[in-house]
Design goal:
Layout: H1 5-10, H2 15-25, H3 28-31, H4 40-47, H5 49-53, H6 62-66, H7 81-90, H8 97-105, H9 110-113, H10 120-126, H11 130-138, H12 140-148, H13 159-166, H14 173-181, H15 198-203, H16 211-218, H17 225-232, H18 235-241, H19 253-260, H20 267-274, H21 290-298, H22 306-310, H23 316-325, H24 327-332, H25 341-349, H26 354-361, H27 366-371, H28 373-386, H29 390-393, H30 395-404, H31 408-418, H32 424-431, E1 449-451, H33 454-465, E2 471-474, E3 480-484
Antiparallel strand pairs: 1-3, 2-3
Helix pairs in contact: 20-21, 21-23, 23-25, 26-28, 28-30, 28-31, 30-31, 31-33
């Protein structure tokens, strides 16, 4: 046989007739070689199968298998049912949309075939058509590129089909990613996905938003901190995850640590995740912003200890906040912490209970109260609410507390509570430092009016009893108390 003849014949004007005769009469040993198999003869047979068979040249269909024919259009062979069946059973057809549909039509009804447009691979897998399944799996590269990616509406593949498709490592990654990105089905478990698709699955929201999947990615060979952070900051992902409890078993601890140590989160995001952490940690993350440290304190995520307290030494305001949030732990060992009255004042300005504040006040140096009006202005209202023993404080402290506290009702109340400890001159001296018209109460020859309140009535009643004022009465409207002072300081034992 002339070596060049088969190729020339397969490409000539009479190619169909020549190929029919070559398929029928060429030595069988040559059929598996070029230019027969994988050459122009097989190509012509694949494209023009019905025409070749229509030439009336009979040959054993098994020779088509030796030639490795891939029929382009199975549906064109309806006039040759035996050959058609042989080709289908042997998988001797090209993988394209029409051939796969035709093969399925032989095993599925028309209603089932409607799903081909939207879930092609799922339909193929569920068909139980073994010859078709074998053919598709054997040439999955072509099936992916020329079928799955050609069908624009093929977006509803089932989870099993998606996993099966992306596990075909012979297909280029970009084609598998393209296929997966089109699907509306969300896979429940990232652990079932090949690890090199983990980042893609999270980034494109192709897997369910669960802490389990985040933990899977955290331990994946493809783990990338920036990818996981971006995923966790997606508003839709956050909405789902924040409703789900973070796993609290030991194996999930790295996930909580990732959230705790994530300085890349915006403060609002950081607070949201920190609030649901199932663990308390021993130490603050290193090199964190003050805002995030404050969040950890407010959300009580760090255990109070000497070490954690001292780690905030360069940020005294945070030390105060940390101690206030853990006030019982602080007070139980307050002697172990080197703090000054400025620190204690910070605690008094915090939202701890008055009972706790009173304990803090016991450690404040009295000189701080007498020398610093701002200190006295904080301590005064607390003692007014909680009570105190004037004799334990001393005159200088009482004077500073009364004079510097606000509002006037607190000043008056403090003075009332201290009256039995103070001498008349001390009372006059303190009142002289009040704002007008209260200072006029101890000015001779005055008749000041002050609001009619319970504190003020108590004040002027004992002032009258001690002859610090002459008398008092209600005004016509009864909204004020009119006070009459002495014209001069009365002699002891005498009155005006």
């Amino acid at each position: 046989l002339w070596k060049g003849f088969p190729a020339i014949a397969a490409e000539s004007d009479q190619s169909v007739l020549h190929v029919a005769r070559l398929a029928a009469y060429a030595p069988e040993a040559t059929l598996s070689e070029t230019p027969f198999a994988d050459g122009p003869v097989a190509a012509c047979l694949s494209m023009e199968t019905a025409h070749v068979l229509g030439q009336g040249v009979e040959f054993d269909p098994s020779r088509l298998e030796i030639l490795r024919v891939e029929v382009a259009d199975l549906s064109s062979l309806t006039d040759f049912p035996e050959v058609q069946k042989f080709l289908m059973d042997g998988g001797l057809y090209a993988i394209n949309i029409s051939n796969v549909r035709f093969a399925l039509e032989q095993s599925k009804n028309s209603a089932e075939l409607k799903s081909l447009d939207t879930q092609h691979y799922t339909t193929v897998l569920e068909s139980n058509n073994k010859s078709l399944l074998h053919r598709v799996e054997a040439d999955f590269i072509r099936y992916m590129r020329h079928v799955l990616l050609k069908l624009e509406d093929n977006t509803k593949e089932g989870g099993s089909a998606i996993l099966a498709a992306i596990r075909h490592d012979e297909v280029a990654v970009e084609f598998r990613e393209d296929f997966w990105s089109r699907q509306s089905t969300i896979l429940p478990l990232l652990s079932e996905v090949p690890h090199h698709f983990h980042a893609f699955g999270l980034e494109h929201k192709r897997v369910a938003a669960t802490w389990e999947n985040c933990l899977t990615f955290l331990s994946s060979e493809s783990f990338n901190a920036e990818r996981l952070t971006a995923y966790l900051t997606d508003p839709n992902v956050m909405k789902v995850l924040l409703k789900e409890a973070i796993p609290d078993h030991k194996d999930a601890l790295p996930l909580s640590r990732f959230l705790l140590n994530n300085a890349s989160f915006k403060n609002g995001t950081y607070r949201s995740y920190t609030a649901i952490l199932p663990w308390k940690f021993n130490n603050f993350p290193a090199a964190f912003s003050a805002e995030k440290l404050k969040i950890l304190i407010e959300e009580k995520r760090i255990s109070f200890s000497t070490e954690s307290f001292e780690s905030l030494s360069e940020q005294p305001e945070l030390q105060v906040s940390f101690s206030a949030t853990n006030i019982d732990a602080f007070l139980s060992n307050s002697s172990n912490y080197e703090v000054d009255d400025g620190f204690r004042m910070g605690l008094l300005r915090s939202k701890i209970s008055d009972d706790k504040k009173k304990i803090v006040i016991r450690d404040i140096d009295p000189e701080s109260i007498t020398a610093d009006p701002s200190c006295a202005s904080v301590v005064g209202p607390i003692l007014e609410r909680t009570g105190f023993e004037p004799i334990e404080l001393g005159f200088d402290v009482i004077r500073s507390l009364v004079v510097n506290s606000k509002p006037i009702a607190v000043q008056t109340s403090l003075l009332n509570k201290s009256r039995d400890f103070l001498s008349d001159d001390q009372v006059r001296g303190i009142l002289a430092e009040f704002e007008e018209p209260y200072r006029d109460i101890v000015a001779f020859g005055k008749s000041p009016s002050i609001p009619n309140t319970s504190e003020n009535r108590s004040l002027i009643e004992w002032l009258e009893q001690r002859q610090i004022i002459s008398s008092w009465k209600l005004t016509v409207t009864e909204k004020e108390l009119r006070i009459h002072t002495f014209r001069s300081k009365p002699q002891e034992g005498a009155s005006e």
